[in-house]
Write a sequence for this structure.
């Protein structure tokens, strides 16, 4: 974590207000600060896109698991121990050469926390939320991704409690790879649909 | 409500700027706001949908010029005052002026892993069968409720096709208003880009929303 020092007055004011709020809630007996510490620690260190990468790698390596993901993603993902808040009803959508999936929440910031962790700032930002449903190819270009014109684009706006996980296409040249090695190719953005999985040349051997 | 949060199709916000090696939080206060918001869930003084409404009903100018966790902070303060757990005077004073409400649930450190790791389904049993089937043509109702809704403006009055049925789920619009869960069938409805955005749209584009049954009419 960084501090607010370099940002100056406005954020310092926010910091003061947050401290005051935590004091009020603690004094009134509503909050145990150690529980707040534990929540923060969980999302900083335990829950993140590494979880989703394991799901994707297993789907690539294990046809039975891939089929289970298609039929009941919530159960298949739970079987790997990834459960909880913002992941109660999961749907996995698979990229193919003819169809590319991309996930957004135009209304707020809905995101599959158990498999991807907390969303990055850009995912919650006005530029992404406004344009993902209108100009997804333009958004993809800003992420350095250009898809063939013949690839259809499918955008999923998460407007209810269903959460979507994109299964990116398995890169060429990975035949016979173990799941652990495959998982290193799976980026967070590839599971949102604003990126592709890395090719073997892009990761250290 | 047609608030600033309903961003799909708005223009002029500029390019998407992704940060390399982004930290989970950019400042300690952001982490505390997230943690406090989750911890206060144990008080059961409001639900998730009320939380969303508290944030999206901020004045549009404030919503659009606030960072994500600033919006969460304002939302949490609003919920605390609305629920009577904290007074506005206390927020203004920056300290507690009266004892807390007895019997309010508190998140304990030893329960954090269990609470965060437990899936709580939004699905509920209902006695009525689903009105629509996969493949059915539907039209999204043209509606502009003053309260919370999960129906984005860009989809209203548009024609789509039911692609998935997710069971009956807690109806966010009612739940946010304190009317109870009022579960309804939930569908994924797919639209063509041309239907949503007109003849200039990318012909290879399809967009879906998740829509409760009362958002839909037979197409």
């Amino acid at each position: 974590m960084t501090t607010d020092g370099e940002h100056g007055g406005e954020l310092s004011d926010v910091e003061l207000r947050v401290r005051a709020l935590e004091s009020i809630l603690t004094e009134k007996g509503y909050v145990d600060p150690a529980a707040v510490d534990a929540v923060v620690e969980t999302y900083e260190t335990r829950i993140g896109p590494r979880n989703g990468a394991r799901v994707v790698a297993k789907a690539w390596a294990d046809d039975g698991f891939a089929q289970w993901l298609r039929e009941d993603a919530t159960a298949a993902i739970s079987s790997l121990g990834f459960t909880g808040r913002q992941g109660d009803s999961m749907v996995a959508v698979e990229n193919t050469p003819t169809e590319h999936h991309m996930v957004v929440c135009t209304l707020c910031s809905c995101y599959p926390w158990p498999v991807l962790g907390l969303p990055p700032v850009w995912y919650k930002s006005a530029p992404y939320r406004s344009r993902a449903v209108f100009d997804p190819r333009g958004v993809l270009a800003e992420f350095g991704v250009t898809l063939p014109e013949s690839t259809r684009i499918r955008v999923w706006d998460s407007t209810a409690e269903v959460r979507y996980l994109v299964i990116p296409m398995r890169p060429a040249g990975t035949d016979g790879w173990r799941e652990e090695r495959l998982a290193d190719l799976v980026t967070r953005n590839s599971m949102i649909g604003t990126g592709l999985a890395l090719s073997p040349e892009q990761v250290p051997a | 409500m047609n608030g600033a949060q309903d961003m799909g199709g708005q223009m002029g916000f500029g390019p998407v700027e992704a940060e390399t090696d982004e930290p989970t939080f950019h400042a300690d206060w952001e982490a505390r706001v997230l943690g406090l918001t989750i911890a206060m869930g144990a008080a059961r003084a409001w639900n998730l949908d009320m939380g969303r409404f508290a944030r999206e009903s901020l004045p549009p100018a404030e919503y659009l010029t606030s960072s994500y966790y600033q919006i969460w902070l304002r939302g949490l303060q609003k919920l605390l005052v609305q629920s009577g757990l904290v007074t506005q005077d206390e927020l203004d004073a920056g300290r507690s002026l009266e004892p807390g409400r007895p019997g309010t649930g508190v998140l304990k450190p030893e329960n954090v892993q269990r609470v965060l790791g437990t899936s709580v389904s939004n699905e509920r049993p209902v006695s009525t069968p689903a009105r629509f089937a996969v493949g059915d043509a539907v039209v999204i109702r043209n509606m502009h409720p003053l309260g919370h809704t999960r129906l984005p403006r860009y989809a209203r009055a548009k024609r789509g096709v039911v692609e998935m049925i997710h069971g009956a789920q807690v109806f966010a619009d009612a739940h946010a208003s304190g009317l109870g869960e009022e579960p309804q069938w939930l569908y994924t409805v797919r639209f063509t880009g041309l239907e949503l955005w007109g003849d200039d749209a990318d012909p290879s584009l399809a967009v879906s929303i998740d829509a409760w049954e009362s958002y839909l009419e037979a197409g």
The two ends of chain B are 25 Å apart (CA to CA). Chain B has a mean pLDDT of 97. The CA atoms of residues 165 and 187 of chain B lie 5 Å apart. The beta strands of chain B are 137-140, 159-169, 184-192, 205-212, 216-218.
